[in-house]
Specification:
Elements: H1 22-39, H2 47-67, E1 68-71, E2 76-81, E3 84-89, E4 92-95, E5 102-107, E6 113-117, H3 136-140, E7 141-143, E8 149-160, H4 163-168, H5 173-190, H6 194-200, H7 202-219, E9 224-235, H8 241-310, H9 312-327, E10 335-336, E11 348-349, H10 350-354
Antiparallel strand pairs: 1-4, 2-3, 2-5, 6-8, 7-8, 8-9, 10-11
Helix pairs in contact: 5-7, 8-9
Length: about 350
């Protein structure tokens, strides 16, 4: 006996615009004669004939109307024949067997879906997207690892990765995903302190919750791929919210003062370190300069001593002249006296010659 998955070798006359085979044509004619003989009494005239034609035409129109269906570009259709899975159909215009023999379920596989916990977005079409069908406040009430209470709101974004598993493996996968998400979030939040949940541990909570949700979704064969888990508002319970806000303000003031102190530290200390390095480099440069100058003086003196040993008088005269050449230009008021020739040039006023005042 056929199981419903075998393909008719003659083809399906309602798909791919194939011509109707002779067997189907004979079957239609035989049914027409049967209803004509039964309801019209075998006569070819009379009002009942037109009623039958109209009913038959309406039946054909309804068959064609229920046989044609369109799949959006972001979805696929899972076709069932007599309730049994037959095939998966891509986006576009398609034809199926009417009268409920073939049933096509459209699944948005390319659309990113989401579920909200603790709040509701107006206009949501998915009944499992928001927590309006259950107590949202009870859903967000959690106990942290240090036995403090917190109200946690979050969003789970997911996609349908396997339409067959999504439809047939788990009953009501949307509600199952909400239960899995709530269970995982309570476990992750319960392993951390309230300060970590509210302030510094948000990213770690999101990543760990995403990983655990994906593991459970794969284990249950839900056909779902978790894209992102995002924490929204995290607040303490209303009876202690005022005190908790005061504590948060004090912590923020503490962090502010610490940041200001670090700013001043980063402003003063690097400047002092820079000045220290500059002074050290200047001292090193001065040290090298003095060493090089001393070494140069020693080398010059040694060279001068060698010349002096060779010719003492000439070297002495040369040193005297070079010394006077270097010293005299620095003296503003100068008088040169030639003691060897007092009668010719007793003294010479250089300032008068240069037009300077004594």
């Amino acid at each position: 006996m056929p199981t419903g998955n075998e393909k008719d070798p003659r083809g399906n006359p309602w798909e791919n615009n194939q011509p109707i085979p002779l067997e189907y044509s004979l079957l239609i004619k035989r049914g027409y004669r049967h209803y004509k003989n039964r309801f019209i009494g075998g006569h070819s005239n009379g009002p009942a004939r037109y009623v039958f034609y109209i009913a038959f035409l309406l039946l054909i129109v309804m068959s064609l109307w229920s046989a044609v269906y369109t799949i959006p570009s972001d979805s696929v259709a899972v076709v069932q024949r007599f309730g049994k899975y037959l095939k998966e159909v891509p986006a576009g215009l398609h034809i199926k067997i009417p009268f409920g023999i073939d049933r096509a379920t459209i699944v948005p596989v390319k659309r990113q879906l989401k579920q909200e916990f603790g709040f509701t977005t107006p206009g949501a079409t998915d009944p499992y997207q928001s927590s309006n069908f259950r107590n949202s406040e009870r859903e967000t009430q959690m106990v942290t690892g240090d036995l403090n209470a917190a109200l946690v709101e979050w969003v789970v974004q997911y996609r349908i990765a396997d339409p067959v598993k999504f439809l047939f493996k788990v009953r009501q996968p949307g509600e199952t995903l909400r239960s899995v998400s709530e269970s995982v979030m309570r476990e992750v939040v319960g392993d951390r302190t309230v300060d970590e949940v509210i302030t510094i541990g948000r990213q770690e909570i999101e990543y760990e919750a995403l990983t655990k949700m994906q593991v459970l979704s794969s284990k249950y064969e839900m056909g779902i791929s978790i894209d992102q888990v995002q924490l929204k508002n995290i607040n303490p319970p209303k009876p202690v919210q005022a005190s908790f806000n005061e504590v948060n303000q004090a912590q923020q003031e503490k962090e502010k003062l610490i940041n200001e102190a670090r700013r001043d530290y980063n402003k003063v200390i690097p400047l002092a370190l820079g000045e220290k390095d500059q002074r050290i480099r200047e001292a090193d440069g001065y040290r090298l300069k003095r060493i090089n100058e001393a070494e140069g003086d020693v080398a010059r003196f040694n060279a001068l001593l060698a010349e002096y040993v060779k010719a003492p008088e000439v070297t002495q005269r040369r040193i005297y002249l070079e010394t006077m050449q270097a010293v005299l230009p620095q003296i503003r008021s100068k008088i040169i006296i030639d003691s060897n020739s007092p009668n010719i040039l007793p003294w010479l006023d250089i300032n008068a010659l240069q037009g300077e005042q004594p």
